Amino acid sequence: MVSHDDDNNTHVVEEVMVAEAEKRLVLTIVIFIAMQTEALPLVTKFQLSQGPDLVFPKEVPWIRYHGIYKDLRINIICPGKDRVLGVDSVGTVSASLVTYASIQALQPDLIINAGTAGGFKARGACIGDVFLASDVAFHHRRNPIPVCDRNGICAKKTFPTPNLLKELKLKVGKLSTGDSLDMSPHDEAAIIANDATVKDMEGAAIAYVADLLSVPAIFVKAVTDIADGDKPTAEEFLQNLVAATAALDQAVTRVVDFISGKCISEL
Ligand code: ADE
């Protein structure tokens, strides 16, 4: 029989192990980026090269760009193109699968999810803003049964990075994730209930997997469209994609430069 003492000891040992891990230098980073267009400028900036390697099963379209930048082993991972339709495999299903496989294969010290997002002007978001998410939650998973409702929303605080925030002066807001670019009335109510400033299609899924496997994760999101504005989302997204990607890539470079030479506990 497992006693309370055994449980307590296990918790103490786990806490000591986490504290020790946080004192180690960050050496390996996984940067998950859903759209290849958003990833390619960073691939060039960090002088990364693409496989061939045996990190992922040969059947999947997932792409790993990797290399050494400063003292960091950087891996930019994209879910790749849908084999039939030729478009990026955005959304929570591929994000969680790829994150799981990347953690298993690469054992990163930190995950950065970088991407674009819809922003809420009522909460101060403007086109081109770059946010660091303080919290993540889902807005498309509904189950009204008590407790299951909270399990569906799966709200989490992200890994705290007070020094990085102070240095980089990024905007901070809560991120809400669903599998749609546009927003149904139900989505809108759920996003408001999640108190979110930005919405995306991957963040909470990546946070779920990172949390399961105890890997710190942070979320950098650039606003391409105003979710509570008048313009059709898809049109506004495409119109601003290039400019927002440039802002995103600049912010991610600053984040990576800040991380270089530091341990997790210094972020
Ligand atoms: N990525 C960019 N804009 C988005 C939006 N409005 N919703 C979800 N993901 C996005």
From TrEMBL:
Positions of the Nucleoside phosphorylase domain: 28-256
GO molecular function per UniProt: methylthioadenosine nucleosidase activity
Taxonomic lineage of the native organism: Eukaryota, Viridiplantae, Streptophyta, Embryophyta, Tracheophyta
The organism of origin for this protein: Aquilegia coerulea
Gene Ontology terms: biological process: L-methionine salvage from methylthioadenosine; nucleoside metabolic process
Stated name of the protein: Nucleoside phosphorylase domain-containing protein
